[in-house]
Amino acid sequence: MPSRRKLIELDADEVRDYLIAEKTLIIVSNGNRGYPHAMPMWFAVDDDDAIVCTTFRKSQKVLNWQRDAKATLLVETGEEYAELKGVMIYASCEIVDELEAVKDTLAAINSKGRELGDGEWEKLREAVSGTAPKRVVLRFKPERYITWDHTKLGGRY
């Protein structure tokens, strides 16, 4: 009989589908006083399966990742134990300070879950461009996933 842990793991396709479907990510950097610095962020998944979000260039998160690129990311859902589902990702953070990349990332986050035509995409990029010059992209390259989906157990523990 497989281990209980193996029964609830998500495969690569399930991980990608889950991350694409969810909106909020908890990002954790290593703070300068030794404490984890956790923050909720909206996010998107790019074509290379990197997780991307944006933040203001002068934020504490940026300072933390300039000092130490290691990150832990968490997406989780479920109200009852039998519904718990999540993905924890150990990743390295790249800070991308490029205006067009910021606009693309903001548009991807704000259109998440919707199909946009070319005209709609450009209109959205324009709409989000007001704060873009003050922002950077946080691009997280996953190194390891830890996953769980308690619904796979069918209510039996």
Q: Can you walk through the features of this model?
A:
The chain is α+β, with helices and mostly antiparallel strands. It has 5 helices and 7 strands; from the N terminus they run H-H-E-E-E-E-H-E-E-H-H-E. The chain has a 7-stranded antiparallel sheet with strand order 2-1-5-6-7-4-3. It is globular.
Task: Give the SSE map.
Blueprint: H1 4-8, H2 12-21, E1 24-30, E2 36-42, E3 44-45, E4 51-56, H3 60-67, E5 70-77, E6 85-96, H4 99-110, H5 118-127, E7 135-149
Antiparallel strand pairs: 1-2, 1-5, 3-4, 4-7, 5-6, 6-7
Features:
157 residues, alpha+beta, 29% helix, 5 helices, 7-stranded antiparallel β-sheet
- Assembly type of the chains comes to single chain
Helix-strand pattern, N to C? Answer: HHEEEEHEEHHE
Radius of gyration: 17 Å
Q: Can you count the beta strands?
A: 7
Main sheet specs: 7 strands, antiparallel
Shape: globular
Structural class: alpha+beta
* Estimated helix fraction: 25-40%
Number of helices: 5
Provide a compact summary of the structure:
The chain has helices at residues 4-8, 12-21, 60-67, 99-110, 118-127; strands at 24-30, 36-42, 44-45, 51-56, 70-77, 85-96, 135-149. The chain is built from five helices and seven strands; from the N terminus they run H-H-E-E-E-E-H-E-E-H-H-E.
